[in-house]
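Handout for the seminar on molecular recognition.
Each group receives one record of this type.
Step one: identify the two inputs.
Step two: read the structure output and locate the region that could contact zinc ion.
Step three: write two sentences on what you found, then compare them with the reference statements printed after the record.
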Amino acid sequence: MSKPKQEDNWRLYERLVAALEAENSGIELSVTPNARIKGCISHKARQIDVLIDARWGDDLSRRIIVDAKFRGRKLDIKDVESFEGMMKDCQAAHGILICPKGWSASAKRRAQDAITIKLLTLEEVEEKTSWASFDECIGECYQNLNRRSQKGLVLWDADHLLRINDLWAIVFTGKCDVCHNFHIWCWDCHEKFAISDEGQHECYCKRIWVSLIEEEIDDPTGKTLNAVHLLLQTGSDILPLDRRRLR
Ligand SMILES: [Zn+2]
Ligand SMILES: [Zn+2]
Protein backbone atom coordinates (compact mmCIF):
# COMPACT_ATOMS: atom_id res chain seq x y z
CA MET A 1 0.00 0.00 0.00
CA SER A 2 1.09 3.62 -0.30
CA LYS A 3 1.81 5.86 2.64
CA PRO A 4 -1.39 6.60 4.59
CA LYS A 5 -2.57 10.19 4.34
CA GLN A 6 -2.97 12.54 7.28
CA GLU A 7 -1.25 10.32 9.75
CA ASP A 8 0.49 11.87 12.74
CA ASN A 9 4.25 11.58 12.59
CA TRP A 10 4.49 9.70 15.89
CA ARG A 11 1.99 7.09 14.64
CA LEU A 12 3.89 6.75 11.39
CA TYR A 13 7.10 6.32 13.33
CA GLU A 14 5.59 3.58 15.54
CA ARG A 15 4.21 1.72 12.55
CA LEU A 16 7.43 1.86 10.56
CA VAL A 17 9.45 0.75 13.57
CA ALA A 18 7.10 -2.27 13.88
CA ALA A 19 7.66 -3.10 10.20
CA LEU A 20 11.41 -2.78 10.64
CA GLU A 21 11.39 -5.13 13.63
CA ALA A 22 9.23 -7.61 11.69
CA GLU A 23 11.76 -7.56 8.84
CA ASN A 24 14.58 -8.21 11.29
CA SER A 25 12.81 -11.05 13.12
CA GLY A 26 12.76 -14.59 11.80
CA ILE A 27 9.63 -16.70 11.31
CA GLU A 28 9.98 -18.13 14.81
CA LEU A 29 9.19 -14.73 16.32
CA SER A 30 5.74 -13.15 16.18
CA VAL A 31 5.68 -9.36 15.93
CA THR A 32 2.58 -7.58 17.26
CA PRO A 33 2.28 -3.84 16.62
CA ASN A 34 0.48 -1.75 19.26
CA ALA A 35 0.05 -4.75 21.56
CA ARG A 36 -1.89 -4.87 24.81
CA ILE A 37 -0.97 -7.33 27.52
CA LYS A 38 -1.70 -7.52 31.23
CA GLY A 39 1.21 -6.51 33.46
CA CYS A 40 2.30 -9.31 35.81
CA ILE A 41 3.12 -6.83 38.62
CA SER A 42 0.64 -3.99 38.02
CA HIS A 43 -2.22 -6.29 36.87
CA LYS A 44 -3.11 -3.45 34.51
CA ALA A 45 -3.33 -3.41 30.73
CA ARG A 46 -0.06 -2.21 29.22
CA GLN A 47 0.25 -0.75 25.75
CA ILE A 48 3.42 -1.79 23.92
CA ASP A 49 4.49 -0.23 20.61
CA VAL A 50 5.92 -3.52 19.36
CA LEU A 51 5.77 -6.86 21.16
CA ILE A 52 8.04 -9.64 19.92
CA ASP A 53 7.29 -13.11 21.26
CA ALA A 54 8.04 -16.73 20.43
CA ARG A 55 5.58 -17.56 17.63
CA TRP A 56 4.67 -21.10 18.67
CA GLY A 57 5.91 -21.82 22.15
CA ASP A 58 5.43 -20.29 25.55
CA ASP A 59 9.06 -19.27 25.95
CA LEU A 60 9.08 -15.88 27.71
CA SER A 61 12.89 -15.76 27.58
CA ARG A 62 12.51 -14.67 23.94
CA ARG A 63 10.14 -11.79 24.70
CA ILE A 64 11.31 -8.36 23.53
CA ILE A 65 9.40 -5.11 23.90
CA VAL A 66 10.08 -2.10 21.70
CA ASP A 67 9.25 1.49 22.59
CA ALA A 68 9.37 3.99 19.74
CA LYS A 69 9.89 7.30 21.55
CA PHE A 70 9.13 9.89 18.92
CA ARG A 71 9.92 13.16 20.66
CA GLY A 72 11.89 16.31 20.17
CA ARG A 73 14.38 15.82 23.02
CA LYS A 74 17.06 13.37 24.03
CA LEU A 75 16.23 10.35 26.17
CA ASP A 76 17.22 10.82 29.79
CA ILE A 77 17.80 8.45 32.67
CA LYS A 78 14.14 8.62 33.76
CA ASP A 79 13.00 7.35 30.34
CA VAL A 80 15.31 4.36 30.67
CA GLU A 81 14.20 3.65 34.24
CA SER A 82 10.51 3.77 33.44
CA PHE A 83 11.12 1.53 30.43
CA GLU A 84 12.93 -0.94 32.66
CA GLY A 85 9.88 -1.01 34.96
CA MET A 86 7.68 -1.65 31.93
CA MET A 87 9.96 -4.54 30.88
CA LYS A 88 9.62 -6.15 34.32
CA ASP A 89 5.84 -5.73 34.30
CA CYS A 90 5.67 -7.26 30.81
CA GLN A 91 8.18 -10.05 31.64
CA ALA A 92 10.41 -9.01 28.76
CA ALA A 93 13.93 -10.43 28.65
CA HIS A 94 15.10 -7.63 26.41
CA GLY A 95 13.97 -4.13 25.55
CA ILE A 96 14.65 -1.83 22.62
CA LEU A 97 14.23 1.94 22.88
CA ILE A 98 14.14 3.73 19.55
CA CYS A 99 14.39 7.52 19.41
CA PRO A 100 15.16 10.17 16.82
CA LYS A 101 17.12 12.64 18.97
CA GLY A 102 19.71 10.58 20.84
CA TRP A 103 20.27 10.18 24.59
CA SER A 104 22.14 11.58 27.55
CA ALA A 105 25.34 9.90 28.82
CA SER A 106 23.59 8.82 32.03
CA ALA A 107 20.73 7.27 30.06
CA LYS A 108 23.25 5.24 28.05
CA ARG A 109 25.00 4.04 31.22
CA ARG A 110 21.66 3.16 32.84
CA ALA A 111 20.55 1.12 29.84
CA GLN A 112 23.07 -1.70 30.48
CA ASP A 113 22.82 -5.14 28.84
CA ALA A 114 19.09 -5.83 28.82
CA ILE A 115 18.23 -2.60 26.98
CA THR A 116 19.37 -1.57 23.53
CA ILE A 117 18.96 2.08 22.55
CA LYS A 118 18.82 2.84 18.83
CA LEU A 119 18.89 6.20 17.12
CA LEU A 120 16.61 6.39 14.09
CA THR A 121 15.02 9.47 12.61
CA LEU A 122 11.64 9.26 10.89
CA GLU A 123 13.40 9.69 7.53
CA GLU A 124 15.81 6.85 8.27
CA VAL A 125 13.12 4.45 9.37
CA GLU A 126 11.04 5.39 6.28
CA GLU A 127 14.04 4.59 4.07
CA LYS A 128 14.65 1.20 5.65
CA THR A 129 11.06 -0.04 5.50
CA SER A 130 8.26 -0.11 3.02
CA TRP A 131 4.51 0.27 3.18
CA ALA A 132 4.35 -3.00 1.21
CA SER A 133 4.40 -4.86 4.52
CA PHE A 134 1.07 -3.19 5.45
CA ASP A 135 -2.51 -3.55 4.30
CA GLU A 136 -5.73 -1.93 5.41
CA CYS A 137 -7.65 -3.91 8.03
CA ILE A 138 -10.57 -5.91 6.65
CA GLY A 139 -11.54 -7.25 10.08
CA GLU A 140 -13.37 -5.54 12.93
CA CYS A 141 -12.07 -2.05 12.08
CA TYR A 142 -13.69 -2.31 8.67
CA GLN A 143 -16.94 -3.84 9.88
CA ASN A 144 -17.32 -1.31 12.71
CA LEU A 145 -15.97 1.60 10.75
CA ASN A 146 -18.53 4.11 11.95
CA ARG A 147 -17.99 3.34 15.61
CA ARG A 148 -14.20 3.47 15.60
CA SER A 149 -12.26 6.68 15.40
CA GLN A 150 -9.29 4.97 13.87
CA LYS A 151 -8.97 2.29 11.25
CA GLY A 152 -6.06 -0.09 11.75
CA LEU A 153 -3.36 -1.36 9.45
CA VAL A 154 -2.30 -4.99 9.16
CA LEU A 155 1.37 -5.75 9.49
CA TRP A 156 2.20 -8.89 7.49
CA ASP A 157 4.88 -10.20 9.81
CA ALA A 158 5.22 -13.77 8.56
CA ASP A 159 5.45 -15.67 5.30
CA HIS A 160 4.97 -19.36 5.97
CA LEU A 161 6.11 -22.13 3.68
CA LEU A 162 3.83 -25.04 4.63
CA ARG A 163 3.83 -28.67 3.60
CA ILE A 164 0.18 -29.61 2.94
CA ASN A 165 -0.76 -32.96 1.37
CA ASP A 166 2.76 -33.36 -0.01
CA LEU A 167 2.68 -29.95 -1.70
CA TRP A 168 4.21 -26.67 -0.66
CA ALA A 169 1.91 -23.78 0.11
CA ILE A 170 2.73 -20.14 0.79
CA VAL A 171 0.70 -18.26 3.35
CA PHE A 172 1.16 -14.77 4.73
CA THR A 173 -0.18 -13.93 8.19
CA GLY A 174 -0.45 -10.67 10.08
CA LYS A 175 -2.29 -8.73 12.76
CA CYS A 176 -4.20 -5.46 12.72
CA ASP A 177 -2.67 -2.79 14.96
CA VAL A 178 -6.06 -1.50 16.17
CA CYS A 179 -8.56 -4.40 16.43
CA HIS A 180 -5.74 -7.02 16.49
CA ASN A 181 -7.66 -9.47 14.29
CA PHE A 182 -5.49 -12.06 12.57
CA HIS A 183 -5.31 -11.62 8.80
CA ILE A 184 -4.47 -14.35 6.32
CA TRP A 185 -3.39 -14.22 2.71
CA CYS A 186 -3.62 -17.64 1.10
CA TRP A 187 -1.46 -17.60 -2.03
CA ASP A 188 -3.00 -20.69 -3.64
CA CYS A 189 -6.50 -19.19 -3.91
CA HIS A 190 -5.39 -15.52 -3.55
CA GLU A 191 -7.98 -14.92 -0.86
CA LYS A 192 -7.17 -12.31 1.77
CA PHE A 193 -9.35 -12.31 4.88
CA ALA A 194 -9.57 -11.56 8.59
CA ILE A 195 -10.60 -13.88 11.42
CA SER A 196 -12.09 -12.59 14.65
CA ASP A 197 -11.04 -14.24 17.91
CA GLU A 198 -12.80 -17.61 18.13
CA GLY A 199 -13.86 -17.32 14.50
CA GLN A 200 -13.18 -19.57 11.55
CA HIS A 201 -13.08 -19.28 7.77
CA GLU A 202 -12.91 -21.62 4.79
CA CYS A 203 -10.90 -20.10 1.94
CA TYR A 204 -11.52 -20.76 -1.77
CA CYS A 205 -9.10 -23.69 -1.77
CA LYS A 206 -11.12 -25.36 1.04
CA ARG A 207 -8.60 -24.88 3.79
CA ILE A 208 -10.09 -24.15 7.20
CA TRP A 209 -8.52 -21.39 9.26
CA VAL A 210 -9.37 -21.19 12.94
CA SER A 211 -8.72 -18.71 15.73
CA LEU A 212 -8.91 -20.15 19.25
CA ILE A 213 -8.62 -18.53 22.66
CA GLU A 214 -6.61 -20.46 25.21
CA GLU A 215 -7.66 -19.92 28.79
CA GLU A 216 -5.42 -20.51 31.73
CA ILE A 217 -6.28 -20.39 35.41
CA ASP A 218 -3.08 -19.54 37.21
CA ASP A 219 -3.96 -16.12 38.44
CA PRO A 220 -5.28 -15.45 41.96
CA THR A 221 -7.94 -13.18 40.46
CA GLY A 222 -9.42 -16.14 38.59
CA LYS A 223 -9.76 -16.95 34.94
CA THR A 224 -7.30 -15.15 32.69
CA LEU A 225 -7.02 -15.14 28.95
CA ASN A 226 -3.62 -16.36 27.95
CA ALA A 227 -3.32 -16.26 24.17
CA VAL A 228 -5.22 -16.29 20.91
CA HIS A 229 -4.03 -18.93 18.47
CA LEU A 230 -4.27 -19.00 14.70
CA LEU A 231 -4.44 -22.52 13.28
CA LEU A 232 -4.80 -24.11 9.88
CA GLN A 233 -6.84 -27.28 9.63
CA THR A 234 -6.20 -29.48 6.60
CA GLY A 235 -7.72 -32.95 6.74
CA SER A 236 -6.62 -34.44 10.04
CA ASP A 237 -3.67 -32.07 10.44
CA ILE A 238 -3.68 -28.91 12.52
CA LEU A 239 -0.84 -26.51 11.88
CA PRO A 240 -0.18 -23.67 14.34
CA LEU A 241 0.57 -20.43 12.47
CA ASP A 242 0.62 -17.69 15.05
CA ARG A 243 -0.10 -16.84 18.63
CA ARG A 244 -1.05 -13.45 20.04
CA ARG A 245 -0.27 -13.17 23.71
CA LEU A 246 -2.84 -11.60 25.99
CA ARG A 247 -0.70 -11.50 29.11
ZN1 LIG B 1 -8.52 -3.88 12.56
ZN1 LIG C 1 -6.87 -20.77 -0.01
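Reference statements: The chain has a mean pLDDT of 90. Residues 109 and 159 are 38 Å apart (CA to CA).
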